[in-house]
Write a structure and sequence with these properties.
The complex is a heterodimer of chains A (139) and B (486). Chain A has 139 residues and is mainly alpha-helical. Chain A has 5 helices and no strands. In chain A, helix 1 packs across helix 2, helix 1 runs antiparallel to helix 4 and helix 2 runs antiparallel to helix 3. The radius of gyration of chain A is 14 Å and the shape is globular. The longest helix of chain B is centred in the first third of the chain and has 21 residues. Chain B has 2 domains: 222 residues, Rossmann fold (3-Layer(aba) Sandwich); 232 residues, 3-Layer(aba) Sandwich (Rossmann fold). In chain B, the strands form 5 sheets. Chain B has a 9-stranded mixed beta sheet, sandwiched between helices. The chains are: A mainly alpha (139), B alpha/beta (486).
Chain lengths: 139, 486
């Protein structure tokens, strides 16, 4: 897929009903936190923020409830907003948006440093993804 | 038994650098790599890091405010030394920009120490060091902070037994003038100055404590394999001064009459310089030399500085090239360094197993060379012939010059002193015709004919008379018939 050609479900899909709101966002955010911990020491908070901001801009048109605010520069501010957005969406839409964001972020990084180095850099932060659903089941 | 500490030497993995450093890099040393933007500092640091880093000697690479880390990774992985498998396991990158912005040097130092304690590296790199320096407060306090920072960093890294590099965007003058830099054990300066529209990269080891390094500036190149340095040294010739070759094997030159003048051919491994004016047959002689080699099963190399169209008419050469018996090297750069040329020659000799080389011609080579090499053509030729002698290949080099009779000269720029054998080819006006003749001026370590012999260029090649030309004063250009002996 090209860096600009992301397509997703209808824009009005996925707004959450009232409850339970935040539960499904937490495990998704763990992946982003690990990714941030992995990459910020390497590329700096500014670098991470710029890459995530670009990713958000590419993905957000398909998910209008993802908030894009140019004044958010730091990784912490961007991820806090994402957590709030994911919590506000229903679980399936949140997961789909999360995967779209993660896929685009990975491709953006890959376009800069190549897929092999990207895989190596992200290996640690994405290693836990497969276990996430099971971990939830144990809760 | 000596109780002096022995300095462990690390092989840097940069071809030529260990020679400049006096045998390698001292373990636990603190070295500044300085140079203007684009001079190759980060590449040099990466090449050293990837050569030295392994699971038992890990490397920490701190990026500060210089090249963005993502871009650095993007570009550095283009080099063949960038081993992806080492990233993360043996090599860790850490960005310090936040720490530097947030606080003073002590904050940066503490962050570096935390990372060092966590990763236990044997190698530490800080890139770019100048961006650290630029945050120094002005005045004496800032200077003191900075000096303290560098001293602390140097001593703490030494205590951690980490070999440390600071990479900084300094010019050579900055480096030598800055008292702060005296803290460093070693200083390596890179430069790429413009001279007559041509840039030749240079490297200089300004200091390296505890070891006898090579001084002066040395040429370096950046290729797909990274940096390669060319110390100002001649290649060693195996067996030189330890064996005497009393009766060297003779090889045919491809011109029977010339072999006769040489008393049986050119001694194998010799360099013969063929000189003469335009149209005298030097290039044809070169083709014969390669043909004779091909007929004996020897691979040949034709290093040609003639413009390409000239070669289109050389059917014999084209056929040999097509048959894989001769490899033609035709430089295209008009800013050629002698090192680039010698690299290609060496690589081709090793790849093809060539034992004969023709260089045609030394009078055109200057048109291709970067100014500093062009201005000292004799040194360029000397280095080229020394390399070929070291490889034991037999060489025919040509050099053209305008006839200036009756002056008796045998080459341009005193190049004839650099060759083992010299053949001069000249014109003379005889009975209304421009006739050609040749004579062997010298052959080192071997007797040879001193006759001046007329020759013709025919369909069969160069046909040399089997006796001395019956004229006197031939070298004046206006010979006179020799009276019969009484």
């Amino acid at each position: 897929m090209d860096k600009h050609d992301y397509r997703a479900p209808p824009p009005d899909a996925g707004m959450a009903s009232d409850a339970p709101r935040a539960a499904h966002a937490s495990p998704l955010m763990q992946t982003w936190s690990r990714l941030s911990r992995q990459l910020v020491p390497l590329i700096g908070d500014n670098g991470f923020g710029a890459l995530f901001g670009r990713t958000l801009r590419l993905v957000a048109p398909a998910w209008p409830w993802l908030s894009v605010d140019a004044s958010r520069k730091t990784g912490a501010a961007l991820l806090a907003a994402l957590e709030s957005d994911l919590a506000g969406a229903d679980a399936a839409a949140a997961r789909a948006a999360h995967e779209a964001l993660m896929g685009t972020f990975t491709r953006q990084l890959g376009a800069l440093v190549g897929p092999a180095l990207t895989a190596r850099l992200l290996a640690e932060s994405t290693a836990g993804d497969e276990q996430q659903p099971n971990q939830q089941e144990h809760k | 038994m000596s109780e002096k500490v022995t300095l462990g030497k690390l092989s840097t993995g940069v071809p030529g650098l260990d020679v400049l450093l006096g045998g390698g890099l001292s373990e636990f040393s603190f070295t500044l790599i300085a140079g203007a933007p684009g001079s190759g500092k980060t590449t040099l640091a990466h090449q050293i890091m990837f050569a030295l880093a392994h699971p038992k000697r890990r490397a920490l690479f701190f990026t500060v405010l210089g090249e963005p880390p993502l871009k650095m990774l993007r570009y550095q992985q283009q080099f063949s030394f960038f081993d992806m498998d080492k990233v993360g396991t043996s090599i860790r990158y850490v960005n310090l920009s936040e720490d530097l912005r947030a606080g003073d040097f002590s904050g940066v130092l503490e962050r570096i120490m935390r990372e060092v304690e966590d990763f236990s590296p044997g190698l530490v790199f800080v890139d770019s060091f100048r961006s650290v320096v630029q945050t120094a407060r002005s005045g004496n306090q800032g200077l003191w902070d900075l000096q303290h920072f560098i001293q602390e960093l140097g001593s703490r890294m030494a205590m951690w037994q980490a070999t440390t590099f600071l990479i900084g965007e300094y010019t050579q003058t900055d480096v030598e003038a800055n008292p702060i830099i005296t803290v460093a054990d070693g200083m390596i300066a890179l430069s790429h100055n413009l001279h007559e529209d041509v840039v030749v990269r240079k490297i200089r080891v300004i200091k390296m404590r505890g070891q006898a390094h090579m001084g002066g500036s040395h040429t370096m190149r950046i290729t797909d394999d990274g940096i390669r340095i060319y110390p100002r040294l001649l290649a060693t010739v195996p067996g030189a001064y330890s064996a005497i070759e009393r009766d060297p094997r003779r090889i045919p030159t491809g011109v029977a009459g010339l072999d006769d003048l040489l008393h049986g051919g050119l001694p194998q491994g010799h360099t013969i310089l063929a000189t003469g004016p335009t149209g005298i047959g030097k290039t044809i002689l070169g083709t014969h030399f390669l043909t004779a080699g091909a007929e004996c099963g020897e691979h040949g190399i034709a290093l040609y500085f003639e413009k390409h169209t000239a070669r289109l008419h050389n059917a014999a050469l084209i056929e040999m090239a097509r048959a894989g018996k001769v490899t033609v090297i035709e430089p295209r750069s008009l800013a050629l360094t002698v090192e680039e040329m010698l690299d290609e020659l060496t690589e081709t000799i090793e790849r093809t197993g060539a034992t004969r080389v023709v260089i045609d011609s030394l009078s055109e080579i200057g048109l291709y060379l970067a100014p500093e090499f062009r201005h000292d053509l004799r040194l360029t030729v000397f280095r080229t012939l020394a390399l070929l002698a070291g490889r034991g290949v037999s060489v025919l080099v040509t050099a053209g010059f305008e006839d200036n009779q009756p002056d008796m000269r045998f080459s341009i720029d005193n190049l004839c002193f650099l060759a083992d054998a010299v053949l001069t080819m000249r014109f003379a006006e005889i009975e209304g015709r421009l006739c050609k003749f040749m004579t062997v001026v010298k052959v080192r370590g071997s007797a040879h004919s001193n006759e001046l012999r007329a020759y013709r260029i025919t369909e069969a090649g160069i046909e040399v008379e089997d006796h001395a030309a019956p004229y006197d004063r031939m070298l004046t250009g206006w010979p006179t018939p020799r009276p019969p002996r009484k």
